[in-house]
Amino acid sequence: MEEPIIRRSLALHAPLRRTPYVMLRRMLEQVTPETPPDGPEGPVARLERRLAGLLGTDAALFFPSGTMAQQTALRVHAERRGRRGFAAHPHSHLDVWEQQGYNAVHGLWRHRLGDPHELLTAADLRAVGEPLAAVVWELPQRDLGGLLPTWDELNEQVAVARESGAAAHLDGARIFEAQTYYRRPLDEIAGLFDSVYVSLYKSIQGVRGAVLAGDEAFLAEAGVWRQRLGGGIRDAWPLAIAAEAGLDDLLERMPAFRDHAVAIAAAVTADGVATVVPDPPLTPLFHLHLAAPRAAVERAGAELLAERGVQLYLRVRSASDPSRCAFEITVGENAMGFEPAEVVELLHDLMKRATSA
Fold this sequence. Notes:
Largest sheet: 7 strands, mixed
Distance between the termini: 25 Å
Number of strands: 13
Mean pLDDT: 96
Oligomer: single chain
Strand content: 15-25%
């Protein structure tokens, strides 16, 4: 069966702007004929220095994946403290999407911290009965629709963790989006934490890869584990160049992406075709909740794509109520091409198809 052609998409990581041709054209703008592949003036080292400067850390270290970067951070914190447990929200990416690699590879274990449907609290941290190696914060909390604690709440939580001797680690895959809520310099946000992971392909639309930032002693230890895990690769320059293109093109547009997310959410809420979580969005990321079963919405979305060439989502999420479902919208370059009223019209089309016999 022939694959439908995606002409437009609300989804951040739709293939429209991620084909090899498009990505390579963007990357070529970042280099000259004299750009070396490696070394202190190569793209990877240049990117590491740039992100360390943005985050206000001593240094930053490139990793080929965020999974490896975060496992490395937790392993170093655990080795330093002689503790094997860490705490994270039940919807932590480390657990939901990475098949518990922290345990299978490193022998660490996780405390499920707080209610699965709410942000963690300082009280949740105080209730942990075991000394921890680290506490992980994901900002924003993707599986909760992009929720974040307030700045004061975050500071209190980090202080509670440090009182017990635990390190504070930031899953900052989307730290650039989180900044649109906190409206503070990146180095002030990152400065709360002992280590910070940043994705090179989520917000800034690179190819793949990640950076782990912290002080020089921490990153020296992290570099050993990166090598042990097979991440000390040469010729990683394509990943670094793509990330630099994203930093140049997209970083300053994050506030506009958030404003557009708020406008789309307001139009949807005013119409009533769906509900929005959170309402209003705190960042460019939010969830749309629909009064239809997941399978019906998946079928309707496939029909809409085949007939109109419009993709509304990458994945539909089930709900505890089987008559409902949800999907994520992260506003980036793709979603900026949709006016709020058009999103509402598309949702009506989707729901008509999903609820028809």
